Amino acid sequence: MSTTQFDKIYHGLSPEVGKFRVANSGMAWKGEENEKVVALPSGDIKWAQWFRVARNFQLRVGLKDRRRETFDGFMREDHDKLASLLKQYFAVTLEVKDVTFKGWNWGVTDIQGQDLAFLVSNKTAFELPLNQVANSNIAGKTEVSLEFASSPSAGKKSSRNAPDEMTEIRFYVPGTHVRARGSDAGSQRSDDEEGEEMSAAQAFHDAIKEKAEIGQVAGDLVLSFEEVLVLTPRGRYDLDMFIDFLRLRGKTYDYKILYSSISKLFLLPKDDQHVLFILGLSTPIRQGQTRYQYLVMQFAREEETTAELNMSEEDIAKYDKLKKHYEDPTFEVVSGVFRALSKKKIISSGAFQSRGGHPGIKANFKAVQGDLFMLEKYIFFVSKQPMLIELSDIHQCVFSRVGAGVGATAARTFDLKIITKGGPELTFTSINKEEHEPVESYLKDKKIKLKNEMVPDVDLLAAGAGDSDEEMQSVASSGDERPRPRVGGDDDDSEEDEDFEASSSDEGSPTESESDSSGGGVTASDASGDRELAKGSKTKKLSKKKAKAKEKGSDDEDEDEGEKPKKAAAKPKPKPAKPKKDDDAMDVDDEKPKPKPKPKVKSTPKDDEDGPAKKKQKISI
What is the pLDDT of residue 418? Predict the structure, then answer.
């Protein structure tokens, strides 16, 4: 029996080179490195096609069980020889398939068996093996993203020299699609039987999931958890745990996560009621443009679960600390099964304790709020986008307080800046001041270089801010200069004026009150210029300050005020005598629109006692 051999032939997507032989009994391929053999009996061969591919030419062979095998690396001159051998041995015609070389990125997709073909001008541009699709997601309303699993043929030995692989491809699928109900798509339907209208991207996504068998996985289900709350990426997912991988099923996204891609496991108490179980992934999962390297699950501390693993006792014995039956809190069951199947150690909270007795403290990173956990070998910030910082990678930690002189609110918090050896600086803000001492002790125990930029007397400054303002204002009012009224003190002034005017018996004398009510009398406040100011602005606030001026008098304008009453000789008599005795109080009113309550009380009895004497003295003249 004669055999024809072809050298330097590749099988499928494998980078390994082998030999391909054709005989009357069938076809076979044998690799040169691991000596893997792929045999195709003559009775199983149904059709054959010839393609132009990246690695020269490809022979595609269809089998009777709807499988197919591909062999790349043939030269152009091998076509005639292969065509004659297939016709002679298997009575199969080698069909030549045209491939387009236009390079267009728009066309039509067609699912052909186990492949997704992209056609341009009815010719194949490229094909994607659906059995390699690990996940399909809708990125936006019109985009469908296909993610591919890494090739299983690339072993540990050849991983260093393995070729590049495509991990994701996106299709833009605009428009809508009508899904048929009941009858076939080509049959006639009445208006009542019209199908549901949906986006073309959703229809394409559903077809990929069905043909790629993303939901139908090989192997038996070990354990399943329903409606697990996942904080990152946020949503409720069903966890289906198999021997080699985890399926994460949500309403929109489905993920297949290999246990070998899990790098770290964390079990951290969030508060007294909740516990966080976190998976650190070496290959991040994606939702649109966002990558998630950590999968954060939250469980109630009091929630319990009764579960039984779908595994035999012999298989359970192969794993460390794996039990057949569980009746424990849910977070302990989930973490225990993950630890056994992934063969990774669980990292828990260390010896650090905050003032409240928790292993973590509240902090902000930029505008994101989260929990900062101080672990034995890491500082872990758990938020919408968790960050893991290794203690060995920290160059220096700086304690600072931004805006310390602003007020008491800033004094209650501090900032922690972490400078890594690689260069990036991470600043965590709004940390409670009470946590400064535990954090500093933790970092000192870990022998990390510290720098303190905090202001020690900031609390005293904040506490004395109110008193210092009042003292400075009193000093300004006792001098000769005239500070302008402060905008912030207008409300306080108006409140004090209303309280003062509520008691009409405290006014200087009956003659003064009558002249004020009539509006025609000239009082001491007129002499100090307050009435002219009231006439110019005509506001309620200034009129109240004028009333205050009548009670308090002026000091620095004594000489000027003595001349003004002489000009207004036709007015009532009490005006010249009053300025002579109450100059000091009047000056306080002119210089400071916000008088203190104590000068008020002192000036009122002075006006009551001196007022009648002044009037009698004026009449005798």
Answer: 93
pLDDT confidence of residue 180? 60
Distances (CA, A) of 162 to 11, 258, 262: 15, 20, 22
Torsion of CA 501, 502, 504, 505, to 10 degrees: -120
Which of 183, 180, 205 lies closest to 194 in space, CA to CA? 180
Which position has the higher pLDDT, 445 or 155? 445
Q: Are 62 and 47 in contact (CB under 8 A)?
A: yes
Q: Where are the beta strands (DSSP E) in 149-190?
A: 168-172, 176-179
Q: How many CB atoms lie within 10 A of CB 131?
A: 11
pTM of the full structure = 0.56
Residue 119 exposure: Cα atoms within 13 Å on the Cβ side: 11
- For the record, the structure tokens of 522 come out as 């000239």
Query: DSSP label at 476?
Result: H
Q: Which amino acid would we find at residue 494? A: S
H or E stretch covering 13:
none
Contact 568, 579 (CB under 8 A): no
Q: What is the DSSP string of 62-107?
A: EETTS-EEEEEEE-TTHHHHHHHHHHHHT---EEE--B--S--S--
Question: What CA–CA distance (Å, rounded) separates 144 from 25?
Answer: 44
* SS3 state at 446: coil
Cβ atoms of 465 and 405 within 8 Å: the answer is: no
